[in-house]
Amino acid sequence: MALTDLVTLPGGTFRMGSDRHYPEEAPAHERVVAPFAIERHPVTNDQFAEFVAATGYVTTAERPLDPAEFPDVAEADRAPGSLVFTQTPGPVDLRDWRQWWRWVPGAQWRHPFGPESDLEGRGDHPVVHVSYADVTAYADWAGRRLPTEAEWEFAARGGLDGAEFAWGDERMPDGAVMANTWQGDFPFRNTGWGGTSPVGSYPANGYGLVDVIGNVWEWTSDAFTPRHLPPDAASVDRGPRPDLLAGAPPSQALHVTKGGSHLCAPEYCRRYRPAARSSQAEDSSTTHLGFRLAADPV
């Protein structure tokens, strides 16, 4: 079993969130996390393939939509598939995400851009098109778990408490590109990777973790709330809060994702920061969504 090596962190108190950017990141507050370990890089295609070969697991994107949950969707439109980013030919209204996202039948982790694509040369890229059920199934097989949002942010900061980015306060220190984010004019001109990159293509943070910013958004176990819980109620990391998800179908059960992706750009999605957060429904799978696992210290 070729699992990612774990980096053990001491835990402690840190300043979580931000009052300077998007409203869901506020309020900034002190949070306490216990010691834990976290994988050095996101789970790769090769690692996920080993899991599938060992278990025969079938991902959410490889299954048709559940007619009980989507009764108004025509049978033909319930075919297996996933959301794929498509670069536009020119400038578009950035308020309409449908300009660059499309549902592609047959898109899944083995075929990230559709049935004609494959993973040739992408074994060391982060696996994508994985739903919450998919990543928790992998975690069960690996004997690990998803990190909480607080654990993930503590780890991503790399010891730089309160810094804007995982590497300091400048987005591009001395002009250096520090992470796989959008380089150019979103969503029509990109001089960067134009998709995922091999894990570890950019410098590690202070804890030796790579790709905590950019490349792919990463699942956490926490339920998403529009703002952080009040600091006096959330000073200690309380974990996933399953009560916030009780009874919700997968299409409505929202989890926090962290880190931004190769699609984050200054003019559209300035979420390539440790404090940034987004929401994804449990059945979501896209070309820019992956994960890494955590574990309790031995």
TrEMBL record:
Residues making up the signal peptide according to the UniProt record: none
InterPro entries: CTDL_fold, Sulfatase_Mod_Factor_Kinase, SUMF_dom, SUMF_sf
Segments of this protein annotated with the region Disordered: 230-251
Domain Sulfatase-modifying factor enzyme-like: 4-294
Domain of life according to the entry: Bacteria
Protein name per Swiss-Prot or TrEMBL: Sulfatase-modifying factor enzyme-like domain-containing protein
Species this chain originates from: Agromyces marinus
Higher taxonomy: Bacteria, Bacillati, Actinomycetota, Actinomycetes, Micrococcales
